[in-house]
Amino acid sequence: MPFIPYLTPILLLALSNIFMTFAWYGHLKFPQAALWLVILVSWGIALIEYCFAVPANRIGYHVYSAAELKTIQEVITLLVFVGFSVLYLGEKITLHHLGGFALIAAGAFFIFTAPK
Question: Measured on CA atoms in the order 88, 89, 90, 96, is the torsion positive or negative?
Answer without folding.
Answer: negative
